[in-house]
Design brief:
By secondary structure, the protein is an alpha+beta fold. It has 2 domains: 163 residues, Leucine-rich Repeat Variant; 185 residues, Glutaredoxin, CATH 3.40.30. Helix content is 48%, strand content 10%. It is built from 16 helices and 9 strands. The strands form 2 sheets. It has a 7-stranded mixed sheet with strand order 2-1-5-4-3-8-9. It has a two-stranded antiparallel ribbon with strand order 6-7. Helix 1 packs antiparallel against helix 2 and helix 1 crosses helix 3.
């Protein structure tokens, strides 16, 4: 009888302790949520680009996600509660963090968000998170959305999630470490005329690439792209393939960089069966045509690097998660040229998806040694009036 009472007391103590710990973690999460809620993202939502290079929306998003990732799985109850927050940006960071952490018991909550959230960006991120946590119970819903979803962008994210299931490309310790290790002291350290900060990233073949490996040997062109859904990026890849010999003759090494995990980077580099159909749908609306040479391109001759948490992008000033394209928060399209001595000679940060130098223009800058460029459609600093923080961003047409 006494032992039974003791066990009962232990159970009560354990339950009370668990509740106290959960409440403590919830309290720790709230200041992070409040940082996000208090920032007026809507004055510069990024739906059509961001002309203000000093805008810090990307920084607030990234550091909120970093701080939540650092809390680990103990923050999961507060994160799941945050999926119902009135502020769409809070919901987005919660979805993103749950995916990075691989929180499997958030599957039902994420599935509900995928079906019902009013913001297409949040719904698309929920599809990605379901793939990251390996929640295969979502497969029927994802298959239905992939086939008949109203938004082509969310259809594509559903296809990517289903592909993650096939490949077992779920969240992993390397991804968590990358996010937890973000250091704001390293952000925006690049200056033209100064030495380029060294970095190392894995390419899609798993080889580690270091910028310093090219010092005193080759001029390096760093090109930050968006993702596999980007027709402009595929056009740039097509041009790089066509101009391989010209880059070789000019003694230039090209490194393309994507602020995504290795799965997404490999889709861009190798996943023709995934992005090909999407580009064919997109072509009539944005481009005159997607040539067969793009859809059936050769293997990349340069390394394509995965910047999993965007740490190198943040260091080089490309502002990961600054504005939206195809209903995804993404980095500025950016080009940085580093000479053989390791000095930054050119750093250009795009203000929307189409205003950076073409591949041909970039090559000519290096060959001529003249590092100037301007684009007639570069976005100006402006304010967008969208008072409703939960308003639905229009899907990119």
């Amino acid at each position: 009888m006494l032992q039974s009472r003791i066990r009962h007391i232990y159970i009560i103590i354990a339950a009370v302790t668990a509740i106290a710990v959960t409440n403590a973690w919830a309290a720790d999460v709230q200041p992070i949520f409040e940082r996000v809620r208090s920032h007026n993202f809507e004055d510069n939502s990024g739906g059509e680009g961001v002309g203000d290079l000093s805008d810090n929306a990307w920084r607030i998003r990234m550091l909120a996600i970093r701080d939540l990732v650092r809390m680990g799985s103990k923050a999961a109850p507060a994160l799941k509660k945050g999926l119902r927050d009135e502020n769409r940006h809070v919901r987005h960071i919660c979805v993103t963090t749950l995916g990075i952490l691989g929180t499997k018991d958030a599957g039902d909550d994420l599935l509900q968000l995928l079906s019902n959230d009013p913001d297409p960006i949040v719904r698309g991120q929920a599809a990605q998170a379901l793939g990251q946590i390996g929640y295969t119970r979502a497969k029927p819903t994802l298959e239905r959305i992939a086939e008949e979803g109203e938004s082509r962008n969310i259809r594509h994210r559903a296809i990517l999630a289903l592909e993650r299931f096939k490949q077992g490309a779920t969240s992993n310790p390397e991804q968590i470490k990358a996010w937890a290790g973000l250091d704001e002291k390293t952000f925006r350290r690049v200056e033209v005329g100064k030495p380029a900060p060294d970095f190392e990233l894995k390419d899609t073949d798993g080889k580690i690439r270091r910028l310093s490996d090219y010092k005193n040997n080759k001029t390096v062109v760093l090109i930050w792209i968006f993702a596999d859904w980007c027709p402009v990026c595929h056009r740039e890849f097509h041009d790089l393939i066509e101009m391989q010999e010209q880059f070789k003759q000019a003694d230039i090494e090209v490194l393309t960089i994507e602020c995504h995990d290795m799965f997404r980077a490999k889709v861009m580099a190798e996943g023709r069966d995934i992005w090909g159909p999407f580009l064919k749908q997109w072509a009539p609306k944005r481009l005159a045509a997607i040539e067969e040479s793009i859809l059936n391109r050769k293997k990349l001759w340069w390394p394509h690097l995965a910047d999993t948490a965007g740490a190198v992008g943040a260091m080089y000033g490309v502002d990961p998660m600054e504005f939206t394209v195809h209903d995804e928060w993404i980095n500025r399209p950016s080009t940085v040229i580093v000479d053989k001595e390791g000095i930054v000679r050119f750093a250009y940060y795009g203000t929307y998806w189409g205003d950076r130098p073409t591949i041909k223009e970039t090559l000519e800058m290096v060959k001529q040694g003249s590092y100037t460029f301007s684009h007639p459609e570069r976005r100006k600093v402006r304010k967008l009036k969208q008072p409703d923080s939960n308003s639905k961003l229009k899907e990119q047409k």
